[in-house]
Write a structure and sequence with these properties.
- InterPro entries: GEX1/Brambleberry.
- The structure is a single chain.
- The protein contains 11 helices and 2 strands.
- With 423 residues, it is mainly alpha-helical.
- Helix 8 runs antiparallel to helix 9.
Length: 423
C-alpha cells in the first residue's frame, strides 16, 4: 500500500510540474482518437479541488476514424456478413498486430473483401481454406478483385491500429483517473494521518509532562519517606530511652516500696515503743495519753494517705511500664510526686522522731515531777513533824498556802512541756 501511495505522489508531482495537456503521444502504427463526441464525456481529473479534462490526443488519422465509424455502423445494423467479419476482426486485432507474417491480416482482409463483393452484388471470393497460404488464394482473383482485396488489407491494418490506439487511450485515461482518485484519497488520508500525528504528538507531550510530574512527585515522595524514616528512627531512639528510664523508674519504685515497707515497720515499732512509753506514764498523764492517741491517729491517717499515694504512684508506674510510650512529662510528674512522697515520708520520719523525743521528754518530765513531788511531800512531812501539835489550824492553812507553789510549779512545768503539735 505504501508503494502505491508513493507512486501516486510521484505522478501527481509530474502533473503539477507539467500541468499542460499531454498531447502528441505517437506510436509506430497507431495513434489516439479524437475527443469524444455526442453524449460521451472525456475523463475528468481533479487536482487540489480544480476539475480538469484529461484527454490524450495523438496524431489523428481521419481515414482510420472514418473506417472505424463505418465498421461500428455495420455492427449496429441487421445481422449480415459484415457483423461476423468485423466482430472476429476486432477480437483478433491483438493477434494481427503481433503476426509478423501478416497471415491473419490477409485472412481477415480476404473475409472482408468477400463481404464487400457479396454486399455490392458481385460474385463472392472463392473459398480459401484455413491454413493455406494467401499467395495461392490471391492467384485466383481477378485484377479488380485484387484491388478490392488490397484496399481491405490496408483497412484492416488501419482499423487495428485505431482500435489499439483507442484501447490504449481508454486504459491510460482509466489509469490516470484511478491514480487521481487514489492520490486524492491518499492526500486525504495523509491529511488525516498528519492531524492524528499532531494529536499524537500533543498527547505524547502531555504524557511526557505527566511522566515528568510523576517523576517529581516520586522524588518528593522519596524525600518525604526519607524524612519520615529519619523521624521514625528518632522516635525509636526516644522510645528506647523512655523504656530504659521506665525500667530505671520501676527499679527505683521497687527500692522505694522496699524502703517504705522498712519505714512502715520502723514506724510500727516506734509506735509500739511510744504506746509502751505512754502506758508507763500512769494515770496522772491522761492528757498526754490523749494527745499521744491523737498523734497516733494522725500518724496512722498520714501513713494510710501516704500508702494510698504510693499505691497510686505504683499503679501509675505500672501503666507507664505497660504502655512505654507516654510522654516524659508524665514521668517527670511521677518523679515529682515521688519526690513529694519522699519529702512527706521525711517529714513523717521527722515528726515521729520529734514525737519520740517529746515522749522521752514526757517520761523525763514525769520522772522529774514524780521525784520533785516526792521530795516536796517528804519535805512537807518533815516540816510537819517538826511543828508542835498545839499549832492552830490557821497556821496549818498558812503553811499550806506557803507550800502551794509546789502544785503551781508542777502545773507550769507540765504546761510548758505540752505545747500543741502542728502537722
Amino acid at each position: 500500500m505504501s508503494r502505491n501511495v508513493w507512486s501516486v505522489l510521484v505522478i501527481l508531482i509530474c502533473f503539477l510540474v507539467c500541468p499542460m495537456r499531454i498531447r502528441g503521444f505517437s506510436w509506430n502504427i497507431f495513434s489516439s482518437s479524437t475527443a469524444p463526441t455526442g453524449g460521451e464525456r472525456a475523463p475528468m481529473m481533479e487536482l487540489d479541488g480544480v476539475v480538469a479534462d484529461f484527454a490524450m490526443d495523438g496524431a489523428n488519422d481521419p481515414r482510420g476514424l472514418k473506417l472505424l465509424e463505418n465498421a461500428r455502423n455495420k455492427l449496429a445494423g441487421p445481422r449480415n456478413c459484415w457483423q461476423e467479419a468485423y466482430r472476429k476482426l476486432f477480437a483478433s486485432c491483438g493477434d494481427i498486430m503481433a503476426d509478423k507474417k501478416r497471415q491473419l491480416r490477409l485472412a481477415w482482409a480476404w473475409h472482408l473483401s468477400s463481404c464487400f463483393q457479396d454486399d455490392s452484388g458481385r460474385l463472392p471470393f472463392p473459398s480459401c481454406a484455413e491454413g493455406s497460404k494467401m499467395v495461392h488464394c490471391r492467384k485466383r482473383l481477378k485484377e479488380s478483385e485484387g484491388k478490392v482485396f488490397l484496399e481491405f488489407f490496408l483497412e484492416t491494418n488501419t482499423l487495428c491500429h485505431q482500435l489499439q490506439a483507442e484501447a490504449f487511450k481508454h486504459n491510460t485515461e482509466k489509469l490516470v483517473n484511478e491514480l487521481t482518485r487514489t492520490s486524492k484519497s491518499a492526500k486525504e488520508k495523509l491529511e488525516v494521518i498528519e492531524e492524528r500525528s499532531e494529536q499524537i504528538i500533543k498527547e505524547c507531550s502531555k504524557v511526557q509532562d505527566t511522566l515528568s510530574s510523576i517523576d517529581m512527585q516520586a522524588d518528593n515522595l522519596a524525600e518525604t519517606s526519607k524524612h519520615v524514616a529519619e523521624q521514625i528512627n528518632v522516635v525509636l531512639v526516644h522510645s528506647k530511652s523512655i523504656f530504659e528510664k521506665s525500667k530505671e523508674i520501676a527499679t527505683t519504685q521497687a527500692e522505694l516500696s522496699k524502703g517504705q515497707t522498712e519505714i512502715r515497720e520502723k514506724i510500727e515499732a516506734g509506735m509500739t515503743r511510744v504506746e509502751e512509753s505512754y502506758e508507763r506514764l500512769g494515770n496522772g498523764m491522761d492528757k498526754i495519753k490523749e494527745e499521744t492517741g491523737y498523734m497516733q491517729k494522725e500518724i496512722k491517717s498520714l501513713g494510710e494517705s501516704m500508702s494510698s499515694k504510693m499505691q497510686d504512684l505504683q499503679s501509675t508506674a505500672d501503666d507507664i511500664g505497660s504502655v512505654a510510650g507516654k510522654s516524659l512529662e508524665n514521668q517527670m510528674q511521677l518523679l515529682y510526686g515521688q519526690t513529694q512522697a519522699i519529702d512527706g515520708l521525711n517529714k513523717l520520719h521527722s515528726f515521729q522522731a520529734q514525737a519520740l523525743e517529746e515522749s522521752r521528754d514526757y517520761e523525763v518530765l514525769n520522772h522529774g515531777l514524780l521525784q520533785t513531788l516526792v521530795e516536796k511531800v517528804r519535805a512537807l512531812e518533815e516540816n510537819a513533824g517538826r511543828r508542835a501539835p498545839e499549832e492552830d489550824a490557821s497556821e496549818s492553812e498558812e503553811s499550806l498556802k506557803d507550800y502551794s507553789w509546789v502544785f503551781d510549779e508542777l502545773t507550769d512545768e507540765v504546761d510548758s512541756k505540752m505545747d500543741p503539735i502542728t502537722f
